[in-house]
Amino acid sequence: SAILHAMLDNTTTVAQLRERAQELASEREGLVAEHASLRSVATAVATSSPPRAIFTLVASEALRLLAADGAAVLRLDGDFAELVGTCGDGNGEYPVGTRFPLLPNTELAQMRSSGQPVRTDGYTSGSRHRRASGYRCCVCAPIWVDQSLWGGLCVVARQPAALSTDATDRLEEFAHLVATSIANTERQADQ
Fold first, then answer.
1. Alpha-carbon dihedral angle through residues 62, 102, 117, 53, given to the nearest 10 degrees
2. Could you tell me if 74 and 108 are in contact, meaning their C-beta atoms sit under 8 angstroms apart?
3. What's the farthest any 2 CA atoms get from each other in the chain?
4. Residues contacting residue 79 through CB under 8 Å, at least 6 positions apart
5. Residue 16 and residue 144: Cα distance in Å, rounded?
6. pTM of the predicted model, to two decimals?
7. What is the C-alpha separation between 180 and 56, in angstroms, rounded?
8. Are 171 and 139 a contacting pair, CB within 8 Å?
9. pLDDT by 10s per residue, the chain, length 191
10. Is 152 exposed, middle or buried (0-12, 13-18, 19+ CB in 10 A)?
11. How far apart, in whole angstroms, are the C-alpha atoms of residue 31 and residue 169?
């Protein structure tokens, strides 16, 4: 009986070890993909690619990496936000250069007010566009340039809680690269 219990314990332990190995392999694949995305954006920043190309690349990489339905880089300008880079659902509906009024209670308005990232899961109200588009989850990360809030990087998903729990941290890494690109472009323009 003791031998049988030991064998069952070993079988359970082996199954748990296999399961954990699969989890670690999946995590590793995710980290490799994230590293490749960040490297792609960092290379574009380092080679002084045009800002519009970088904004579109950042939106594209954030969308892909976070498995979102839409992604956008938005420039804050007073009570408005201007779309400067986009990828995913609705990409043709609002072309780059479109200006939106910054409506109260939206994630972008909350981010502007707090200066911090904002995440919303499972909402059913909000702006007319949000309701019409069917988005149910949103994460926005601020883009800070020289201690000033320049804009935000936002991703959206149609399913509630579809974006990973670490989406905010991951989005902030992309926002930092956008800020670096903007600062570099402004410095070059001043020379």
1. 30
2. yes
3. 82
4. 101, 102
5. 44
6. 0.76
7. 15
8. yes
9. 666 566 556 666 666 666 756 665 555 566 556 666 667 767 776 677 787 888 888 898 889 888 899 999 999 999 999 999 998 865 556 788 999 898 887 888 999 999 999 998 876 555 555 556 677 888 999 999 989 999 999 999 888 777 888 889 989 988 888 888 888 777 776 76
10. buried
11. 13
Across the strands, what pairs with 80?
A: 77, 101
Cβ partners under 8 Å of residue 33, min gap 6? 65
Nearest to 176 by CA among 148, 140, 142, 149: 142
The one-letter amino acid at 154:
C
Among all chains, which residue has been given the structure tokens 């590293």?
35
**Which residue type sits at 48?**
S
Environment class of 43 (CB within 10 Å of its CB; exposed 0-12, middle 13-18, buried 19+): exposed
